[in-house]
Each structure stands twice: as C-alpha cells, then as structure tokens.
Design a protein that fits this description.
Layout: H1 5-19, H2 23-34, H3 37-62, H4 67-86, H5 104-118, H6 123-135, H7 137-165, H8 168-192
Helix pairs in contact: 1-6, 1-7, 2-3, 2-5, 2-7, 3-5, 3-6, 3-7, 4-6, 4-8, 6-7
Length: 193
Amino acid sequence: MSLDPLAIITAFGLIFLAELPDKTMFASLAMGTRMRPLYVWLGASTAFLAHVAIAVGVGGLIGLLPNTAVKLLSASLFAFGAFMLLRGGDDDGEEGGGRAITGFWPVYSTAFTAVFISEWGDLTQITTANLSASNGLLSTAIGSAAALMSVSALALLAGQLIVQRVPLKTVQRIGGLCMAGLAVWSLIEAFTG
C-alpha cells in the first residue's frame, strides 16, 4: 500500500464538505455544550475510525471488480451523493436541555454510540467506500478519517461561528456540485479509459 497525496486531499475535501451539514456535526456541537469537548471528540473520532475501516473494506471489495464496472459504480454512487446533498431540507440539530454527563467513560461511550449509530449508511460512509475502490485504501482512509475528525473538532471548538457565517445550504450545494462533477468524470473515465 502506498500513499497518494492527491487521493488523501480528494478524500479529505469531499468528506469534509459532505460532513459539514450532517447530523453528526450537530450532534457533536450539542454534546459539546453539555459534556467535556475533548471526551466527546475522542468518542466521536473512535466511531469515525470504525466506520472508515468498514467503508474502506467494502471499497476494497468493490475494487476487485473490472475497471469499467468500478467506474460505473463510482459514477452512480457520486450521483446519489450529489442528489442527497442537492435535494435540500436535511438534518437539523435538535437537542433539548438535559443534565450534563461527566466522567471520561460515560461521555466517551455516549459520543461513540451516538456517532457510530448515526453514521451507518451515511453519505460520508458511502463516499469513503466509493473513493477507496478507485483511489487506494490507505490514502482514502487517512483523508476520510482526518476530515471526519476535523469536522467534529470544528463543531466542538467553533460550531457557532460556522453556523453564523457560512449557511449550511451553501456548503451542501458546493459538496453536491463537487459530487455531480465527480459522477460525470467517472462516467467519462468508464467509457474512455
């Protein structure tokens, strides 16, 4: 396995944009207001690492298919991702008040469980599997994990600033357009490469 800096940057960029308007960012933000942010980040990051490992494993299996089939599958997954991001009216962060959870293990396990359950079948998991099929397992895993953990950290450290300054619809649309562009690119590669 070799590292491809472009594949790492590609995975990071796509996953970062796809995760920003996601419910997991809002969950991290909400948990960070009631729990110790570092513990939340560690729990969320561990859940993200588990999901990246699962997605990369699935992507590795997809990579065993003939190249044209992989490109067509990639195009359809990117098109699905674009549709999901561009359709709008998505997840809102909703959290009621409640008592603060303290202590490392209760906070860690709460954050891990919330993120692990909410990320199943998520756009970022599908995108990670898709990217790993064509861009390499290790490079995709590093880029995807770094993006997911970065978004969680941003939500915990500066979530209020993001929501106030950058409309999430704008971030969603940029991510959707990037995914649509990658779907077209994959289709072109499938029939010309």
